[in-house]
Amino acid sequence: MFYKKIIFFTVYSILNFLPLLNAQNRSLPDQFFAPKTPFLAKIIGTKDLNTKIFMSKSTELVTTAGSIYDGTLQELIKAHDTVYILLERTGVVYALDPVVDSSKNYSFHRIDKTININYNIECNNFLYKNHLYSYGGYGFWKLNGLLRAYNFIDREWDIMPANEEIISNGYNWVDTKEGKLYVPFQLISNAGIKGPQNISGIRQYDSYYLDLNLMEWKKLGTLSTEAKKLVKENSIVNAFLTTDKGFLFIIEDQVYYFDFIHNSVFKSISSELDQYLVRKKNSLDVFYYKDTLYNYSNNSKGFDQRALTMADFTKLNFPIWGLDKNYYYFVVTLIFLFVLIAFTIWLYNKMVKKKIQQSNLKILKTKSIGQAFIGTELSLIQLLLEAASKDMHVEIHQINHVLGIKDKNIGLQKKVRSDVINTINEKYAIIVNADIPLISSIRKEEDKRFYEYFINEDEIKSIKKILDKK
Prior knowledge:
alpha+beta, Arc Repressor Mutant, subunit A
Protein backbone atom coordinates (compact mmCIF):
# COMPACT_ATOMS: atom_id res chain seq x y z
CA MET A 1 0.00 0.00 0.00
CA PHE A 2 2.85 2.36 0.87
CA TYR A 3 4.54 1.79 -2.50
CA LYS A 4 1.27 2.46 -4.32
CA LYS A 5 1.01 5.87 -2.65
CA ILE A 6 4.57 6.75 -3.64
CA ILE A 7 3.93 5.75 -7.25
CA PHE A 8 0.64 7.70 -7.32
CA PHE A 9 2.26 10.82 -5.86
CA THR A 10 5.15 10.63 -8.33
CA VAL A 11 2.87 10.28 -11.35
CA TYR A 12 0.62 13.08 -10.09
CA SER A 13 3.60 15.42 -9.62
CA ILE A 14 4.96 14.69 -13.07
CA LEU A 15 1.59 15.31 -14.69
CA ASN A 16 1.25 18.67 -12.94
CA PHE A 17 4.87 19.72 -13.51
CA LEU A 18 5.08 18.89 -17.22
CA PRO A 19 2.69 21.65 -18.43
CA LEU A 20 4.52 24.18 -16.31
CA LEU A 21 7.88 22.98 -17.60
CA ASN A 22 6.60 23.06 -21.14
CA ALA A 23 5.28 26.60 -20.72
CA GLN A 24 8.51 27.89 -19.22
CA ASN A 25 10.59 26.45 -22.02
CA ARG A 26 8.34 27.36 -24.88
CA SER A 27 10.57 29.48 -27.12
CA LEU A 28 9.72 32.67 -28.93
CA PRO A 29 9.22 32.49 -32.70
CA ASP A 30 12.28 33.06 -34.87
CA GLN A 31 10.09 34.84 -37.38
CA PHE A 32 6.53 36.09 -37.49
CA PHE A 33 4.29 37.97 -39.88
CA ALA A 34 2.31 40.98 -38.72
CA PRO A 35 -0.70 42.21 -40.68
CA LYS A 36 -0.53 45.70 -42.17
CA THR A 37 -2.76 47.32 -39.57
CA PRO A 38 -3.37 51.08 -39.66
CA PHE A 39 -1.06 51.27 -36.63
CA LEU A 40 1.91 49.61 -38.38
CA ALA A 41 1.15 51.17 -41.75
CA LYS A 42 1.33 54.67 -40.29
CA ILE A 43 4.55 54.08 -38.38
CA ILE A 44 6.45 52.13 -41.02
CA GLY A 45 5.07 54.16 -43.90
CA THR A 46 6.20 57.51 -42.41
CA LYS A 47 9.77 57.41 -43.68
CA ASP A 48 11.21 60.33 -41.70
CA LEU A 49 9.64 59.24 -38.40
CA ASN A 50 12.19 58.63 -35.63
CA THR A 51 10.45 57.45 -32.50
CA LYS A 52 9.89 54.71 -29.98
CA ILE A 53 6.50 53.48 -28.85
CA PHE A 54 5.44 51.26 -25.97
CA MET A 55 2.74 49.05 -27.45
CA SER A 56 -0.51 48.01 -25.82
CA LYS A 57 -2.02 44.53 -25.83
CA SER A 58 -4.03 45.43 -28.91
CA THR A 59 -0.98 46.45 -30.95
CA GLU A 60 1.82 44.21 -29.62
CA LEU A 61 3.34 41.99 -32.29
CA VAL A 62 5.34 39.19 -30.66
CA THR A 63 3.37 36.22 -29.35
CA THR A 64 4.64 35.56 -25.83
CA ALA A 65 1.78 33.49 -24.37
CA GLY A 66 2.98 30.36 -22.61
CA SER A 67 6.60 31.51 -22.38
CA ILE A 68 8.59 33.15 -19.62
CA TYR A 69 8.10 36.40 -21.56
CA ASP A 70 4.34 36.30 -21.12
CA GLY A 71 3.02 39.77 -20.24
CA THR A 72 6.29 41.53 -21.10
CA LEU A 73 5.81 45.05 -22.45
CA GLN A 74 6.83 45.39 -26.10
CA GLU A 75 8.65 48.43 -27.44
CA LEU A 76 8.87 49.55 -31.07
CA ILE A 77 11.87 51.65 -32.12
CA LYS A 78 12.00 53.25 -35.55
CA ALA A 79 14.55 55.36 -37.41
CA HIS A 80 13.90 55.89 -41.12
CA ASP A 81 13.48 52.38 -42.64
CA THR A 82 14.87 50.58 -39.58
CA VAL A 83 12.29 49.10 -37.22
CA TYR A 84 13.00 47.00 -34.12
CA ILE A 85 10.72 45.32 -31.62
CA LEU A 86 12.23 44.86 -28.14
CA LEU A 87 10.78 43.01 -25.18
CA GLU A 88 11.12 45.01 -21.97
CA ARG A 89 13.50 43.70 -19.24
CA THR A 90 15.06 41.28 -21.75
CA GLY A 91 17.67 41.38 -24.48
CA VAL A 92 15.22 40.11 -27.11
CA VAL A 93 15.31 42.02 -30.40
CA TYR A 94 13.23 41.55 -33.55
CA ALA A 95 14.00 43.43 -36.76
CA LEU A 96 11.72 44.35 -39.63
CA ASP A 97 12.64 42.40 -42.74
CA PRO A 98 11.81 44.59 -45.74
CA VAL A 99 12.67 41.83 -48.21
CA VAL A 100 10.34 39.13 -46.92
CA ASP A 101 7.15 41.10 -47.29
CA SER A 102 3.86 40.25 -48.92
CA SER A 103 1.14 42.69 -49.86
CA LYS A 104 -0.71 41.96 -46.61
CA ASN A 105 1.97 41.34 -44.00
CA TYR A 106 5.17 42.70 -42.52
CA SER A 107 7.89 40.21 -41.67
CA PHE A 108 9.94 40.35 -38.47
CA HIS A 109 12.73 37.99 -37.47
CA ARG A 110 14.59 37.60 -34.22
CA ILE A 111 18.19 38.76 -34.48
CA ASP A 112 19.49 38.10 -30.95
CA LYS A 113 20.39 34.96 -29.02
CA THR A 114 20.48 36.44 -25.52
CA ILE A 115 19.44 34.39 -22.51
CA ASN A 116 19.54 36.67 -19.44
CA ILE A 117 16.46 38.66 -18.50
CA ASN A 118 15.36 41.09 -15.76
CA TYR A 119 18.65 43.00 -15.58
CA ASN A 120 17.53 46.10 -17.48
CA ILE A 121 14.03 46.88 -16.24
CA GLU A 122 12.84 50.33 -17.43
CA CYS A 123 16.05 50.94 -19.36
CA ASN A 124 16.20 53.47 -22.19
CA ASN A 125 16.53 51.73 -25.57
CA PHE A 126 17.45 53.97 -28.51
CA LEU A 127 19.08 54.11 -31.94
CA TYR A 128 22.09 56.27 -32.77
CA LYS A 129 24.00 56.05 -36.05
CA ASN A 130 22.32 52.71 -36.86
CA HIS A 131 23.56 51.27 -33.56
CA LEU A 132 21.06 49.92 -31.04
CA TYR A 133 21.80 50.96 -27.45
CA SER A 134 20.33 50.22 -24.03
CA TYR A 135 21.07 52.52 -21.10
CA GLY A 136 20.56 51.94 -17.39
CA GLY A 137 17.69 50.06 -15.84
CA TYR A 138 17.02 48.06 -12.70
CA GLY A 139 18.02 44.47 -12.06
CA PHE A 140 19.70 42.23 -9.51
CA TRP A 141 18.60 44.52 -6.64
CA LYS A 142 20.12 47.74 -7.96
CA LEU A 143 19.88 50.49 -10.57
CA ASN A 144 22.77 50.76 -12.99
CA GLY A 145 24.20 53.48 -15.18
CA LEU A 146 25.73 51.22 -17.83
CA LEU A 147 25.44 51.58 -21.57
CA ARG A 148 25.00 48.43 -23.63
CA ALA A 149 25.24 48.14 -27.42
CA TYR A 150 23.78 45.37 -29.52
CA ASN A 151 26.44 43.39 -31.39
CA PHE A 152 24.96 42.45 -34.76
CA ILE A 153 27.76 39.97 -35.49
CA ASP A 154 27.67 38.00 -32.23
CA ARG A 155 23.95 38.66 -31.73
CA GLU A 156 24.63 39.62 -28.13
CA TRP A 157 24.62 42.81 -26.06
CA ASP A 158 28.09 44.23 -25.33
CA ILE A 159 28.99 46.59 -22.51
CA MET A 160 30.30 50.00 -23.61
CA PRO A 161 32.98 51.13 -21.12
CA ALA A 162 32.82 54.82 -20.15
CA ASN A 163 34.94 57.02 -17.89
CA GLU A 164 32.44 56.64 -15.01
CA GLU A 165 28.99 55.31 -14.15
CA ILE A 166 26.15 57.84 -14.00
CA ILE A 167 22.92 56.28 -12.77
CA SER A 168 19.51 57.52 -13.90
CA ASN A 169 16.14 56.36 -12.66
CA GLY A 170 14.59 57.05 -16.04
CA TYR A 171 14.87 60.83 -16.16
CA ASN A 172 17.16 60.81 -19.19
CA TRP A 173 16.90 61.94 -22.78
CA VAL A 174 18.91 61.22 -25.93
CA ASP A 175 19.83 63.83 -28.50
CA THR A 176 20.26 61.58 -31.55
CA LYS A 177 21.50 64.47 -33.70
CA GLU A 178 24.41 65.48 -31.47
CA GLY A 179 24.96 62.07 -29.87
CA LYS A 180 24.36 63.10 -26.28
CA LEU A 181 22.57 61.21 -23.51
CA TYR A 182 21.39 63.69 -20.86
CA VAL A 183 20.95 62.76 -17.19
CA PRO A 184 19.73 65.79 -15.18
CA PHE A 185 20.19 64.03 -11.83
CA GLN A 186 21.01 60.60 -10.41
CA LEU A 187 18.95 58.21 -8.32
CA ILE A 188 21.21 55.55 -6.82
CA SER A 189 19.29 52.51 -5.59
CA ASN A 190 21.09 49.46 -4.19
CA ALA A 191 19.23 47.03 -1.97
CA GLY A 192 22.51 45.25 -1.27
CA ILE A 193 23.56 48.06 1.05
CA LYS A 194 21.92 48.41 4.46
CA GLY A 195 19.49 51.24 5.06
CA PRO A 196 16.00 52.04 3.71
CA GLN A 197 17.39 55.02 1.80
CA ASN A 198 19.42 52.64 -0.38
CA ILE A 199 16.23 50.82 -1.39
CA SER A 200 14.12 53.91 -2.13
CA GLY A 201 17.11 55.60 -3.74
CA ILE A 202 19.56 58.35 -2.89
CA ARG A 203 19.36 61.37 -5.18
CA GLN A 204 22.43 63.24 -6.37
CA TYR A 205 21.57 66.43 -8.22
CA ASP A 206 24.62 66.89 -10.44
CA SER A 207 23.72 66.99 -14.16
CA TYR A 208 25.68 65.12 -16.85
CA TYR A 209 25.62 64.10 -20.47
CA LEU A 210 27.27 61.11 -22.12
CA ASP A 211 29.12 61.84 -25.35
CA LEU A 212 28.12 58.79 -27.40
CA ASN A 213 31.02 59.29 -29.82
CA LEU A 214 33.72 59.45 -27.14
CA MET A 215 31.93 57.34 -24.51
CA GLU A 216 32.73 59.95 -21.87
CA TRP A 217 30.46 61.44 -19.23
CA LYS A 218 30.79 65.22 -18.94
CA LYS A 219 29.43 67.32 -16.12
CA LEU A 220 27.00 70.09 -17.01
CA GLY A 221 26.43 71.57 -13.56
CA THR A 222 23.92 71.03 -10.77
CA LEU A 223 20.14 70.76 -11.04
CA SER A 224 18.71 74.21 -10.26
CA THR A 225 16.86 74.66 -6.97
CA GLU A 226 13.53 75.23 -8.73
CA ALA A 227 13.92 72.22 -11.04
CA LYS A 228 14.90 70.13 -8.04
CA LYS A 229 11.58 70.96 -6.38
CA LEU A 230 9.70 69.71 -9.46
CA VAL A 231 11.31 66.26 -9.53
CA LYS A 232 12.01 65.76 -5.82
CA GLU A 233 8.85 63.89 -4.85
CA ASN A 234 7.96 62.44 -8.24
CA SER A 235 8.76 59.10 -9.86
CA ILE A 236 9.69 58.20 -13.42
CA VAL A 237 6.07 57.64 -14.40
CA ASN A 238 5.79 61.43 -14.50
CA ALA A 239 8.22 61.62 -17.44
CA PHE A 240 5.43 61.12 -19.92
CA LEU A 241 6.69 61.57 -23.47
CA THR A 242 9.93 62.36 -25.31
CA THR A 243 10.08 64.98 -28.06
CA ASP A 244 12.83 66.24 -30.36
CA LYS A 245 14.22 68.53 -27.62
CA GLY A 246 13.42 66.82 -24.31
CA PHE A 247 10.45 65.31 -22.53
CA LEU A 248 7.06 66.22 -21.13
CA PHE A 249 6.73 65.94 -17.38
CA ILE A 250 3.40 65.71 -15.55
CA ILE A 251 2.91 66.67 -11.90
CA GLU A 252 -0.63 66.06 -10.71
CA ASP A 253 -2.65 68.06 -13.26
CA GLN A 254 0.13 70.34 -14.51
CA VAL A 255 2.34 69.71 -17.56
CA TYR A 256 5.98 70.80 -17.76
CA TYR A 257 8.39 70.57 -20.67
CA PHE A 258 12.09 69.96 -20.06
CA ASP A 259 14.07 71.29 -23.06
CA PHE A 260 17.58 69.81 -22.79
CA ILE A 261 18.83 71.45 -26.00
CA HIS A 262 18.36 74.94 -24.56
CA ASN A 263 18.58 74.02 -20.85
CA SER A 264 15.12 75.45 -20.23
CA VAL A 265 11.93 74.51 -18.38
CA PHE A 266 8.49 75.39 -19.76
CA LYS A 267 5.07 75.19 -18.16
CA SER A 268 1.79 74.61 -19.97
CA ILE A 269 -0.56 77.59 -20.08
CA SER A 270 -3.37 75.58 -21.70
CA SER A 271 -5.77 73.90 -19.30
CA GLU A 272 -7.19 71.94 -22.23
CA LEU A 273 -3.71 70.54 -23.01
CA ASP A 274 -3.16 69.72 -19.34
CA GLN A 275 -6.38 67.73 -19.15
CA TYR A 276 -5.70 65.98 -22.45
CA LEU A 277 -2.20 64.87 -21.43
CA VAL A 278 -3.20 63.89 -17.89
CA ARG A 279 -5.76 61.51 -19.39
CA LYS A 280 -3.08 60.13 -21.71
CA LYS A 281 -0.39 59.82 -19.03
CA ASN A 282 -0.73 56.08 -18.61
CA SER A 283 -1.59 55.39 -22.24
CA LEU A 284 0.45 53.24 -24.62
CA ASP A 285 0.64 53.49 -28.42
CA VAL A 286 1.61 57.18 -28.10
CA PHE A 287 4.33 59.03 -30.00
CA TYR A 288 5.40 62.55 -31.01
CA TYR A 289 5.98 63.61 -34.61
CA LYS A 290 6.34 67.09 -36.12
CA ASP A 291 4.68 69.11 -33.34
CA THR A 292 1.84 66.61 -33.10
CA LEU A 293 0.96 64.01 -30.48
CA TYR A 294 -0.38 60.75 -31.94
CA ASN A 295 -2.34 58.21 -29.89
CA TYR A 296 -3.60 55.06 -31.61
CA SER A 297 -7.15 53.94 -30.87
CA ASN A 298 -7.88 50.29 -31.42
CA ASN A 299 -11.62 50.98 -31.48
CA SER A 300 -11.49 53.43 -34.37
CA LYS A 301 -8.44 51.79 -35.96
CA GLY A 302 -6.93 55.23 -36.32
CA PHE A 303 -4.81 57.84 -34.58
CA ASP A 304 -6.13 60.52 -32.29
CA GLN A 305 -4.07 63.65 -33.02
CA ARG A 306 -3.40 66.73 -30.95
CA ALA A 307 -1.11 69.63 -31.92
CA LEU A 308 1.71 70.17 -29.42
CA THR A 309 3.46 73.51 -30.02
CA MET A 310 5.43 75.91 -27.88
CA ALA A 311 2.51 78.33 -28.07
CA ASP A 312 0.92 76.17 -25.36
CA PHE A 313 3.84 76.79 -22.99
CA THR A 314 5.52 79.64 -21.16
CA LYS A 315 9.20 79.64 -20.33
CA LEU A 316 10.00 79.62 -16.62
CA ASN A 317 12.75 81.83 -15.19
CA PHE A 318 15.08 79.01 -14.18
CA PRO A 319 17.16 76.45 -16.11
CA ILE A 320 17.27 72.66 -15.72
CA TRP A 321 20.83 72.85 -14.44
CA GLY A 322 22.92 75.77 -13.24
CA LEU A 323 26.45 76.32 -12.05
CA ASP A 324 28.16 73.34 -10.56
CA LYS A 325 27.89 73.47 -6.76
CA ASN A 326 31.58 72.65 -6.71
CA TYR A 327 32.07 76.01 -8.43
CA TYR A 328 30.90 77.76 -5.27
CA TYR A 329 33.22 75.64 -3.17
CA PHE A 330 36.03 76.59 -5.53
CA VAL A 331 35.21 80.30 -5.25
CA VAL A 332 34.97 80.13 -1.45
CA THR A 333 38.26 78.23 -1.29
CA LEU A 334 39.87 80.76 -3.63
CA ILE A 335 38.67 83.68 -1.52
CA PHE A 336 39.86 81.95 1.63
CA LEU A 337 43.30 81.36 0.13
CA PHE A 338 43.46 84.96 -1.08
CA VAL A 339 42.57 86.27 2.38
CA LEU A 340 45.05 83.89 3.97
CA ILE A 341 47.85 84.96 1.62
CA ALA A 342 47.00 88.64 2.08
CA PHE A 343 46.96 88.21 5.86
CA THR A 344 50.28 86.35 5.77
CA ILE A 345 51.86 89.10 3.66
CA TRP A 346 50.44 91.78 5.97
CA LEU A 347 51.68 89.95 9.05
CA TYR A 348 55.12 89.44 7.51
CA ASN A 349 55.38 93.11 6.51
CA LYS A 350 54.28 94.14 9.96
CA MET A 351 56.94 91.96 11.56
CA VAL A 352 59.60 93.30 9.18
CA LYS A 353 58.45 96.85 9.79
CA LYS A 354 58.56 96.29 13.54
CA LYS A 355 62.13 94.99 13.33
CA ILE A 356 63.11 97.96 11.19
CA GLN A 357 61.50 100.32 13.68
CA GLN A 358 63.34 98.66 16.55
CA SER A 359 66.58 99.07 14.63
CA ASN A 360 65.71 102.70 13.90
CA LEU A 361 64.92 103.36 17.55
CA LYS A 362 68.46 102.30 18.42
CA ILE A 363 69.74 104.79 15.87
CA LEU A 364 67.47 107.52 17.24
CA LYS A 365 68.29 106.48 20.82
CA THR A 366 64.68 106.65 21.90
CA LYS A 367 62.13 104.20 23.37
CA SER A 368 59.32 104.84 20.83
CA ILE A 369 59.02 106.45 17.43
CA GLY A 370 56.64 109.02 18.91
CA GLN A 371 59.46 110.30 21.12
CA ALA A 372 61.87 110.77 18.22
CA PHE A 373 60.89 114.40 17.78
CA ILE A 374 61.55 116.72 20.70
CA GLY A 375 61.34 120.36 21.70
CA THR A 376 61.45 122.83 18.83
CA GLU A 377 61.23 119.95 16.29
CA LEU A 378 57.87 118.93 17.64
CA SER A 379 56.68 122.56 17.78
CA LEU A 380 57.64 123.14 14.15
CA ILE A 381 55.85 119.97 13.01
CA GLN A 382 52.67 120.98 14.87
CA LEU A 383 52.81 124.44 13.25
CA LEU A 384 53.09 122.90 9.79
CA LEU A 385 50.24 120.45 10.49
CA GLU A 386 47.94 123.28 11.64
CA ALA A 387 48.74 125.20 8.45
CA ALA A 388 48.10 122.09 6.33
CA SER A 389 44.67 121.67 7.92
CA LYS A 390 43.85 125.15 6.60
CA ASP A 391 45.44 124.43 3.22
CA MET A 392 48.14 127.03 3.92
CA HIS A 393 51.94 127.20 3.94
CA VAL A 394 54.20 128.53 6.73
CA GLU A 395 56.42 131.54 6.18
CA ILE A 396 59.95 132.09 7.47
CA HIS A 397 59.02 134.57 10.20
CA GLN A 398 56.51 132.04 11.66
CA ILE A 399 59.22 129.37 11.83
CA ASN A 400 61.65 131.83 13.47
CA HIS A 401 59.05 132.61 16.09
CA VAL A 402 58.43 128.89 16.91
CA LEU A 403 62.15 128.18 17.04
CA GLY A 404 62.76 131.19 19.30
CA ILE A 405 65.20 132.92 16.95
CA LYS A 406 63.13 135.84 15.75
CA ASP A 407 65.49 138.31 17.42
CA LYS A 408 68.71 136.71 16.15
CA ASN A 409 70.66 137.86 13.14
CA ILE A 410 69.67 136.64 9.71
CA GLY A 411 72.69 134.35 9.35
CA LEU A 412 71.99 132.53 12.62
CA GLN A 413 68.28 132.29 11.84
CA LYS A 414 69.04 130.63 8.49
CA LYS A 415 71.45 128.15 10.09
CA VAL A 416 69.06 127.15 12.91
CA ARG A 417 66.11 126.74 10.52
CA SER A 418 68.19 124.58 8.19
CA ASP A 419 69.56 122.42 11.00
CA VAL A 420 66.12 121.79 12.57
CA ILE A 421 64.39 121.02 9.27
CA ASN A 422 67.23 118.73 8.14
CA THR A 423 67.15 116.90 11.48
CA ILE A 424 63.39 116.41 11.25
CA ASN A 425 63.65 115.07 7.70
CA GLU A 426 66.51 112.75 8.62
CA LYS A 427 64.60 111.32 11.59
CA TYR A 428 61.47 110.91 9.53
CA ALA A 429 63.38 109.07 6.78
CA ILE A 430 64.81 106.69 9.39
CA ILE A 431 61.40 106.04 10.96
CA VAL A 432 59.58 105.30 7.68
CA ASN A 433 62.63 103.57 6.20
CA ALA A 434 62.39 105.60 2.99
CA ASP A 435 64.20 108.59 1.52
CA ILE A 436 61.14 110.84 1.75
CA PRO A 437 61.34 114.41 3.16
CA LEU A 438 58.66 115.38 5.66
CA ILE A 439 59.11 119.13 5.27
CA SER A 440 59.51 120.77 1.87
CA SER A 441 59.76 124.35 0.68
CA ILE A 442 58.66 126.42 -2.31
CA ARG A 443 59.33 130.00 -3.40
CA LYS A 444 56.61 132.52 -2.65
CA GLU A 445 54.46 133.64 -5.56
CA GLU A 446 54.61 137.29 -4.48
CA ASP A 447 58.38 137.43 -3.87
CA LYS A 448 60.62 134.76 -5.34
CA ARG A 449 63.48 135.74 -2.94
CA PHE A 450 61.72 134.07 -0.02
CA TYR A 451 60.52 130.54 0.72
CA GLU A 452 57.46 129.13 2.42
CA TYR A 453 57.34 125.67 4.02
CA PHE A 454 54.84 122.80 4.17
CA ILE A 455 54.45 119.10 4.96
CA ASN A 456 53.99 116.91 1.90
CA GLU A 457 50.34 115.93 1.60
CA ASP A 458 51.15 112.22 1.27
CA GLU A 459 53.02 112.26 4.59
CA ILE A 460 50.42 114.01 6.77
CA LYS A 461 48.66 110.81 7.89
CA SER A 462 51.98 109.09 8.49
CA ILE A 463 53.43 111.85 10.77
CA LYS A 464 50.17 112.07 12.72
CA LYS A 465 50.36 108.31 13.46
CA ILE A 466 53.98 108.70 14.54
CA LEU A 467 53.18 111.55 16.91
CA ASP A 468 50.26 109.61 18.38
CA LYS A 469 52.61 106.80 19.46
CA LYS A 470 54.18 108.73 22.34
